[in-house]
Amino acid sequence: MKKKKPIILWINGKKTKINRNADKRDVYMYDREQAATIEDSSNKDNTIPTLARQHDYEINGYVGESMDKSRFSIYKPIIFATVSALVIGLCLGIIMLNMFVGIGKEVSGTGNVPNQLLNNNENNSSASGNTTESAVSNVTFEQINGYVLQAGVFSNETNANEWAKKYDKSGFGTMLWKRDGKYYLLAGLSSTKEHAKEQAKSLKEKDFEIYVKEWSTSEIQKSLTKEEGEWIHSFRDLWYESLMAVTGQEVISTDSWKSLLDRYPKQSDRLSSFFDVLKNSYKQFSEVNQQRAQIILLNQWKQYETSLSK
Fold first, then answer.
1. Which of 58, 142, 190, 221 could cysteine-pair with 195, CB 3.0–4.6 Å?
2. Interacting residues of 179 by C-beta distance below 8 A, sequence separation 6+
3. 173 SS3 class
4. pLDDT at position 10, please?
């Protein structure tokens, strides 16, 4: 086996030979010893050699800087993507918010409307308060009961009117009330069954066939203002009071009815037809007899049911 030539090194001006077959660890230790010798011989004042300091700094600095750059290069795409997403999301959010605000203004009809115009509209609404209705709500009215004198039941209105004329010629008033497709000819009204039978007996003596029948209107719910509801309740109370008066053979007070009409809500259109019936009939209470006063109350009752059932 051919012998390898030794390695010749010049260290600190001295020639040194190193056997090629020497253990690498020994070479390393030898280098360390030589390095230590150099440091001792050239640094008698125990200061760090400038060359060594620069060498160590460059190595250490290079390693740290490389590691920092390596870490930054790994997280750089993630950081950039996160920041970009936040910026884009913020911009889109502002754009969408402005869009929805604009749409809301257009729907509400206030978008781009001058404040002066809005104020004018509000003033006009306030000025027209006399024609603006108050809030409405469902008002419940209990059923009304009474006893009627039934003079006949007809399938058509023509026959019913013919019989009504016969009663009128004899001095008795009547009225027609249509229910369930039939026409009821009624000739009287009373608050009690006993009083109704007494009236029926007097009519039978005139050769009229009369039957006492219980009559009622069901409970009714109607969307009305507070004022309208209170006025209808006042009507019911006065109507019952008047019915008790005719039952007891007493005179109905027209002043009470006039007071009721004076309290009618002026802005109400829902009850206008009912109001007209009361207005045209209440004065007749002082002009007619008890029997015809009952017919007036029957017509008021009928109009009450018709108006509230619409």
1. 190
2. none
3. coil
4. 62
DSSP 114: -
165 and 176 in contact (C-beta within 8 Å)? no
Q: What pLDDT is recorded for position 207? A: 87
Return the H-helix or E-strand segment holding 148: strand 144-154
Cα–Cα distances in angstroms (integers) from residue 299 to residues 77, 173, 273, 281, 302, in the given order: 90, 11, 13, 9, 5
164: which 2 tokens?
């009504």
Distance of alpha carbon 186 from alpha carbon 299, whole angstroms: 10
Q: What is the DSSP string of 13-73?
A: TEEEEE-TTS-HHHHHHHHHHHHHHHHHHH-TT-PPPHHHHHHHHHHHHHHHHHHHHHHHH
**What is the 8-class DSSP label of residue 1?**
-
Alpha-carbon distances, residue 145 vs 49, 160, 211, 212, 217 (angstroms):
124, 24, 17, 13, 7
- The DSSP call for residue 6 is P
Q: What is the mean pLDDT of each run of 10 residues along the chain (310 residues)?
A: 62 65 52 50 49 44 52 74 83 80 55 48 49 77 97 95 93 94 96 95 90 95 95 97 94 94 90 93 91 96 93
